[in-house]
Structure formats: structure tokens, C-alpha cells
Design goal:
It is built from no helices and 11 strands. It is an all-beta fold. Strands 2, 4, 5, 6, 9, 10 and 11 form a 7-stranded mixed sheet that branches. It starts with a strand and ends with a strand.
């Protein structure tokens, strides 16, 4: 069984920075892609950034130039560096992983979520 554990959320002033971390643990055969999504109360979950096994990156237009996704393959981890934060970035951020636990079994996994609040 594979699990995703997030850390790094918190309260920051507008213009500040935060770094989110997500580590996958358990029986990992291959990671196809990992990413970050966010969700506000009463709204759907939206993509923030993704990174695939080949290093391909994807960002939501609202975070381009401010957020950077990266990974550490040796640690089965993905990170989200968030700079120039705005109040509208306030949300619960979720780590996502598309991970094979065997050559034929894969799952679309979610972390528990971490709150990011941007406020003065």
C-alpha cells in the first residue's frame, strides 16, 4: 500500500513564500506523475502543478511564474515552492500521485491536505 504525506502549509503574509513537501511511501514500483491540487470550501479541486516521470511540467495559469514544482526521485518526493503569494492562493493543497505498486497495479492517490493561508 502506498501513502502520500504532505507537510509545509501555514500562514504567510501576501508577497511571502512557502514550500510544500509530499513524500510517497510504501510499496512503490514506479511513479508515473505527481502533482499539487488545491480546493477552496464549496468548490472543486483544481490543478496547481504537475511533474511526470520524464520531467515534464505543467502549471495552472494563475500560478505560472510564481510557483515551482520539483521532485527528488531518490526520496519519492515532490515539492511546491510558492513565491509572491496572494490572498487568492488561500486553499487546502493536496498532493496527488499516480503510482504503480507492481508492474500491473496502479492507483491515483491523494494526500491528506495541508492548509495554506495568505493573509496580513
Amino acid at each position: 500500500q502506498v501513502q502520500l504525506v504532505e507537510s509545509g502549509g501555514g500562514l504567510v503574509q501576501p508577497g511571502g513564500s512557502l514550500r510544500l513537501s509530499c513524500a510517497a511511501s510504501g510499496s512503490i514500483f514506479r511513479i508515473v506523475a505527481m502533482g499539487w491540487y488545491r480546493q477552496a470550501p464549496g468548490k472543486g479541486r483544481e490543478l496547481v502543478a504537475t511533474i511526470n516521470a520524464g520531467g515534464g511540467l505543467g502549471y495552472a495559469d494563475s500560478v505560472k511564474g510564481r510557483f515551482t514544482i520539483s521532485r527528488d526521485n531518490a526520496k519519492n518526493s515532490v515539492y511546491l515552492q510558492m513565491n509572491s503569494l496572494k490572498p487568492e492562493d488561500t486553499d487546502v493543497y493536496y498532493c496527488n500521485g499516480k503510482i504503480y505498486s507492481s508492474p500491473t497495479e496502479w492507483a491515483d492517490l491523494w494526500g491528506q491536505g495541508t492548509q495554506v493561508t495568505v493573509s496580513s
